[in-house]
Specification:
- The protein folds into 2 domains: 43 residues, no CATH class; 134 residues, no CATH class.
- 7% of the residues lie in helices and 27% in strands.
- The strands form 4 sheets. The protein has a 4-stranded antiparallel β-sheet, with no helix packed on it. Strands 7-8-9-10 form a 4-stranded antiparallel β-sheet, with no helix packed on it. A 3-stranded antiparallel β-sheet has the order 11-12-13, with no helix packed on it.
- A hairpin with a 6-residue loop joins strand 9 and strand 10.
Amino acid sequence: MALAKTLREYPSTERCVGGVTHFNDAPQWIYDLDNPYLHGVYAPTLDEMHVDNLPVNGELPADLVGGYFRNGPNPVHTPKNRYHPFDGDGMVHGVYFRDGKASYRNRYIQTAALTGELATGKSISPGVMGPFDYSVSRFGIKDTSNTDVFWYNGDIMTLWYNAGDPYRLDSQTLATKGHYDLEGRTQRRMSAHSKVDWSTGELLFFDYGDEPPFMTYGVADPQGKL
């Protein structure tokens, strides 16, 4: 990677995050846009990988077994309009611990929006900055599932900030299993920041929107029944 752009070429990005660093694994289209949420620490990566035996500084406890997961925006295609971080395609990163060793894996969440855009090779849905287009999505904007990640009912679940569709991922491979539809709730969405009660295994969820009833709240048991 190399620092290659100047203040004159990228005034907004320069003021927010400093110089525009070029990354080998980033899509080249980001360097045509002066948007601080596409550069520096926010720059997307197109690479999906699995790396075993990561270097460890110090020592990991031998009895530490589990994983740490992070979800965030990682746009694949040039935005259809002004870019906001909520518009970036969701990518989950996982660091796994076992026998004093660590491994890493990352995968895109194969949302309905992303699979459609991969098929066409370009952005289809508008982002949260609008204008909304209900001809391409029942949300009017792109549901990226890039906001939340948590464990529920045997799988990882991801959610989007603006009450989108929940997606299920395999915790070991991070492969997307598809939508997670709560029984009796197929016509409603689910917002990020819904929570699992670790003492009961219940999912406490909510959604919201611009039309009545504006907000709903519910509880599902550990098996996904309302």
